[in-house]
């Protein structure tokens, strides 16, 4: 892997991880179009550590409060009645589906799921679903009204992103809007929910990244740092954007990209595998 590819993919990861447009799909598409190969699911998982570090920094106060409350709640019954304690458990329980399914279908995720025809299709289909959620979701429930049932359902929504093109944030935001959550609430919970699963996935697949002719440790560190810095800026922008704007711009982008990719595959301009 060249240094140019490392820098470009680090930028792509940082720009797309938190937007509902699929970072893994974009990494696969950019690599296929400009570098002629697939960087692999392991590379994608490890670069996500950078963007999740951005979440840790941006939401450090919120995350610290949730963790402290969870530990206090283990021994104090009164703390268990608080929303922070329940929220911590929602993140924990909501992380289970993607972990279990990720382990069970690891081989398929790293092979057939990375076919560009599949990615093009998921970009379009889940783009349409996101648009429907924006149009018909009531968007009246703040983050404080999130229930344990909601957290588990959103956990399964996040697990759909094991297929590149679906988008982890896109899946959770879509389902969150269908559940009646406010747009900003769905986005914030999406960020928090990703932390355990993404860090776990990155560490679990770390040995696979350096197998064969993959990136060097130095290249991987640079990619992670770039993704983290760019991702931090995207978090700040997206939270402000969704407070006053719909997600239709992302719907249009997903559909346009998916259709363009189908066209490129159809004329043989890029290989599906």
From TrEMBL:
Protein's cellular compartments: Cell membrane
Listed InterPro entries: UppP
Molecular function, one GO term: undecaprenyl-diphosphatase activity
Membrane-spanning intervals of the chain: 87-104, 116-133, 186-206, 218-239, 251-272
Membrane-protein topology: Multi-pass membrane protein
EC number per UniProt: 3.6.1.27
Reaction catalyzed: di-trans,octa-cis-undecaprenyl diphosphate + H2O = di-trans,octa-cis-undecaprenyl phosphate + phosphate + H(+)
Pfam family, one: BacA
Superkingdom classification of source: Bacteria
Keyword terms of this UniProt record: Antibiotic resistance, Cell membrane, Cell shape, Cell wall biogenesis/degradation, Hydrolase, Membrane, Peptidoglycan synthesis, Transmembrane, Transmembrane helix
Annotated function: Catalyzes the dephosphorylation of undecaprenyl diphosphate (UPP). Confers resistance to bacitracin.
HAMAP family given in the database record: Undec_diphosphatase
Other facts: Bacitracin is thought to be involved in the inhibition of peptidoglycan synthesis by sequestering undecaprenyl diphosphate, thereby reducing the pool of lipid carrier available.
Membership in a protein family: Belongs to the UppP family.
Name assigned to this protein: Undecaprenyl-diphosphatase
Lineage of origin: Bacteria, Bacillati, Actinomycetota, Actinomycetes, Pseudonocardiales
Gene for this chain: uppP
